[in-house]
Amino acid sequence: MLLRSGFRPDHVTFVGVLSACAHAGLVDKGLGIFHSIKDEYGIEHTADHYACVIDLLSRSGLFERAEEMINTMSVKPNKFLWASLLGGCRIHKNVRLAKWAAEALFEIEPENPATYVTLANIYASVGLFDEVENTRRIMELKRITKMPASSWIEVGTRVHVFLVGDKLHPQAEEIYALLKKLYLKMREEGYVADTGFVLHDVEDEQKQQDIGYHSERLAVAFGIIATPKGAPIKVFKNLRICGDCHTTIKLISKIVQREIIVRDSNRFHHFKNGSCSCRDYW
Ligand code: ZN
Ligand code: ZN
User: Fold this and answer.
1) CA of 270 relative to ligand 2 center, distance in Å
2) Quick one: DSSP state of residue 234?
3) What distance in angstroms lies between residue 39's CA and the mean position of ligand 1's atoms?
4) How many Å apart are CA 97 and CA 32, to the nearest integer?
């Protein structure tokens, strides 16, 4: 795969490789690569590497191993690691570890509504409705409100920031034209916009706005224009990616044949050839 001879991987390369293992749920392979980062390549593990492995383990329901790794890891767990664990707990309804992850997230990022919503969803899934109510009350007490969504991308040494429907960028015309072209292609393939993502209720505000021009799409389109053909595109978003953008970016990755990485407030999405490493669960 990526680790051919003559190619010197760096710590960022490994985030991509580990995410690719998440694509296929390849736990052993992922762990093997994780260990090789240090043992074979002499690169220190970063918090992002750990976050990828915790994602892989907790999605596969291997919570004991995840817990052990978190307790013994050599760097401080970051918010992506905790959010990955929380996401895994949602799939497997693990309330004990969900609480642990949420506590850590509340400390790192007390204002992020996604943590509260995910935790409440986990409680609801196991019938703990008092806890659901409790979580809602805390959210209200703390006046957790929505932040405006924004996405950004680094090209060269510059950071380009986009808001929904943003036309301030000097290349806005080109960006919108490209998206229109891509949408046309998608329609030909039978794609219909999806605005009904119930689990993403924190982003109602976003949902009502023009879905075709959410910030992450503008940033991705700009990435396609501003980077060489075939180069991977890496976009950041301050909130969770919305369901429709997720579907759209999957299709875009296929149409333009590019790897697209979106790092949202919760996790990495590694889009490649029409699918995403989160396997549509985040
Ligand atoms: Zn969106
Ligand atoms: Zn995804």
Assistant:
1) 6
2) E
3) 40
4) 25
Q: Which ligand is nearest to the CA of 59?
A: 2
Kindly identify the ligand whose nearest atom is closest to the C-alpha of 55.
Answer: 2
Convert 62-80 to b/e letters by CB count within 10 Å (16 or more is b): bbebbbebbeebeeebbbb
Q: Ligand 1 center to residue 5 CA distance, Å?
A: 39
User: Helix, strand, coil proportions of the chain in percent (round to 5)?
Assistant: 55, 10, 35
Ligand 2 centroid, distance to 259 Cα (angstroms)? 12
Residue corresponding to tokens 């333009």: 256
Compute the distance from residue 260 Cα to the ligand 2 centre, in Å. Answer: 10
**Which-ligand-closest: CA of 210?**
1
Q: How far from 69 is each of 40, 75, 90, 138, 281, CA to CA, in Å?
A: 20, 11, 19, 30, 23
96 pLDDT tier (thresholds 50, 70, 90): very high
pTM of the predicted structure, to 2 decimals: 0.60
The per-residue pLDDT for range 56-93, each reduced to its tens digit, is: 999 899 999 999 999 999 999 999 999 999 999 988 99
141 CA from centroid of ligand 2 (Å): 31
Between strands 233-237 and 260-263, the pairing is parallel
Kindly compute the dihedral angle of the four CA atoms of residues 152, 242, 250, 7, in this order, to the nearest 10 degrees: 40
Which helix (H) or strand (E) segment is 217 a member of?
Answer: helix 215-226
